[in-house]
Specification:
The protein is mainly beta. It folds into two domains: 124 residues, Jelly Rolls, CATH 2.60.120; 55 residues, no CATH class. The chain is built from one helix and 14 strands. The strands form three sheets. Strands 1, 2, 3, 4, 5, 6, 7, 8, 9 and 10 form a ten-stranded antiparallel beta sheet that branches. Strand 11 and strand 12 form a beta hairpin. The chain is elongated.
Length: 193
C-alpha cells in the first residue's frame, strides 16, 4: 500500500493554519500564554483526486491535551457544510464516497499539570487503495476473521442490520448489500433492502 504524505511544517507551513488561542513559534504550535484552550484549523487540502482512505499522524510534547478532528468533502466549498468527526493519531479513517478535500482541526487544552501540548509535526496521508481499516485481524473478504493461535477470533464486533445484535465478522454474512448474522437473520424472507 502506498500513501501520499504531506508533512506540516516541512511541505506546508503552520502559518497556513488558522490559530485561535494558539501561538506559532515556528518550530511548534502551542497554547498562547495565559490561555487554557485553543484551536488550530488547517486550510482545505486538495488531494488531487477522489480518495477512499485518509489518516493524520502528529508528533507532540505533552500530548494529553491535544485532540484532532477531520472533515472531508468532494469540493472545497463542501467543507463548509461538512461536519467534523474525531480521529485518532496515526489511524486511518474511511468514508463511503471518494472525497478530494480534507480539513483538520486540533483542539488544545492545558494539561492537569499546567503544561501545554506542543504540536511539532502533522502528516496527513491519503490513498485510493483498499486497506483493512480497523487493523483488527479481519481480511476484506466475506470469509471474515482469522483465528489467533489459541483458536479465538480477534477483532471488533459488528452489528447485524436486521436484529441489531453484535457478532464477530465470521458469524455474519453479506446479504443484499447488508451485513446480517448467520444465526437468525440470514435468508429471512421478511428481510428487505
Amino acid at each position: 500500500m502506498s500513501f501520499t504524505d504531506v508533512v506540516i511544517p516541512t511541505d506546508l507551513a503552520w502559518s497556513t493554519w488558522t490559530l485561535s488561542g494558539v501561538t506559532n513559534s515556528t518550530a511548534y504550535i502551542a497554547l498562547t500564554p495565559g490561555t487554557d484552550a485553543g484551536t488550530a484549523t488547517s486550510p482545505a487540502y486538495d488531494t488531487g483526486s477522489g480518495n477512499d482512505i485518509f489518516k493524520l499522524a502528529w508528533v507532540a510534547l505533552n500530548p494529553h491535551g491535544l485532540t484532532f478532528e477531520a472533515k472531508i468533502a468532494t469540493t472545497s466549498a463542501g467543507l463548509t457544510a461538512a461536519s467534523y468527526f474525531d480521529i485518532r493519531n496515526d489511524c486511518v479513517f474511511k468514508e463511503d464516497y471518494r472525497e478530494r478535500f480534507v480539513q483538520f482541526r486540533g483542539t488544545f487544552a492545558r494539561n492537569a499539570d499546567a503544561t501545554s501540548p506542543e504540536l511539532y509535526k502533522a502528516t496527513y496521508s491519503y490513498t485510493t487503495e483498499q486497506v483493512n481499516v480497523c487493523n483488527d485481524g479481519f481480511d476484506q473478504s466475506g470469509d471474515g476473521a482469522r483465528p489467533t493461535k489459541d483458536g479465538r477470533f480477534k477483532g471488533r464486533l459488528y452489528t447485524c442490520t436486521r436484529c441489531m445484535g453484535e457478532f464477530r465478522r465470521h458469524e455474519m454474512v453479506k446479504q443484499k448489500g447488508f451485513l446480517v448474522c448467520r444465526k437468525d437473520c440470514k435468508d429471512e424472507p421478511s428481510y428487505k433492502k
